Predict the 3D structure of the following.
Amino acid sequence: MEEKISNQIQGQRFRHRRVERMRRAIIAILAGWALLITVLVTVLTVRLFSLEGKLDALAKTLADTENAVARDNSEDAKMQGQKADPKEGEKAQAAEKLPDEEASAGSEAAVPESQKVYLTFDDGPSENTAKILDILKEKNIKGTFFVIGKEDEASKALYQRIVEEGHTLGMHSFSHKYSVIYESLDAFSEDVNHLQSYLAEVTGVTPTVMRFPGGSGNQVSNTDMSELIRYVKEKGIEYYDWNIDSGDATGQAYTPEELVENVMKDIGRHETSIVLMHDIPTKPATVEALAPLIDKLQAAGVELLPIGEDTTPIQQVPADRAG
Ligand SMILES: [Zn+2]
């Protein structure tokens, strides 16, 4: 009898242990799966974001390149005149005197008579604006500021100083939030009108030039840029992109010397150069680069001007193609 009970207890214990072992094994397997799935999801998410980023960058580069190629074709041809040997240059000059031949010599001939360079500063006003204005004043140069909307007193004073000192006050965006302004034509027009009337109220001057955030050829807008371009043109606003990027807002932390080099290496390529720079507090190198850049540009004999009505628009998406 006792032996039977003892056997029963042992049997029960054995079963308990087996159930316990199976329970642990199942938990271990489930935990393993959960971990594996978490790791997989994390890896895939990170990979997705990085690929999306790369795709955006790629699309942007492609658009830029296409536009640059289209724009530069004629100018590149002209540049060959500059690079050719002196005899070619003389021939070209001689050809210039004969209208008929000039047409046929065409691209060979023209060394740009005067190169116009427009220094532009995006995203201000900021704590750098006064420093930029000081340098421009000291060098007696006028530039162009594509500003965003800021309502504090210091910023209001900076908008006024830009106008008073003869620079061009251009519009960029009141909010500068791509996801908001590029959501629809309504959202965009509200932003532009807000900025235009605000700047007019603060400075007494109604701005008529602008630069689209990200450029007219940006690849992030949810609204067809042609629609936005038509809208601003109808309002009598001209938009300007750039054909020289100082690189000051790229991921690379360029030194002031490198920023100057980035601009100077491309300056001979265009008759009209619009140089993209930024007026943001995290970019002190731009401020440091400015005086040496102006010195080099002046030494190269270019004309430094503020954007005005007679400035040739440099546009990634030309207005006539948006029509
Ligand atoms: Zn911007």
In short: The first helix runs from residue 2 to 83. The first strand starts at residue 116 and ends at 122.
